[in-house]
Amino acid sequence: MEDDFAIAIRILDATRSIAVVGASDNPARDSHRIAAYLKGAGFEVHPVNPYADRVAGLRCVASLGVLAGEGIAIDTVVCFRRSEEIAPIADAAIDIEAHHLWMQFGVVNEAAAARARTAGMLVVMDRCIMVDHRRLLATRH
């Protein structure tokens, strides 16, 4: 069985477009900083927050469904929400046919992860996409 970092590497290697659910327009928040980092690392980043207009200089949308409605395919859905709020995000990720579900540090929802895996998605929980991306880059240089 693969360890979580091996799964994280598979996700990062297969990802071009990322939806950051719970992205904040406050530059002091981790979700803002990480969205900006991912953008700078060359990923196509789509912040998702119904209460923000722009995050890290990027247009923010209200939901994953808005992205799908605009014909924007998402490889990875990164979740900056509390564990108990993940189930509907996982369901929406499945609905838009995303390939991966990534729950940030401190976020664990086994039931949502199981649903996503059953739908064919790779899932990681309680990991930081920025930390793992930097770690991956360090192992390749």
What is the topological layout?
Elements: H1 4-14, E1 17-21, H2 30-40, E2 44-48, E3 54-55, E4 58-59, H3 64-69, E5 76-79, H4 86-95, E6 100-103, H5 110-118, E7 122-124, H6 129-140
Parallel strand pairs: 1-2, 1-5, 5-6, 6-7
Antiparallel strand pairs: 3-4
Helix pairs in contact: 1-6, 4-5
Write a concise keyword list for the protein shown above.
globular; about 140 residues; alpha/beta; 7 strands; 6 helices
Word description of this protein:
With 141 residues, the protein is α/β, with parallel strands linked by helices. The protein has six helices and seven strands. The protein has helices at 4-14, 30-40, 64-69, 86-95, 110-118, 129-140, and strands at residues 17-21, 44-48, 54-55, 58-59, 76-79, 100-103, 122-124. α1 (4-14) packs across α6 and α4 (86-95) runs parallel beside α5. The protein is globular. The two termini are 26 Å apart.
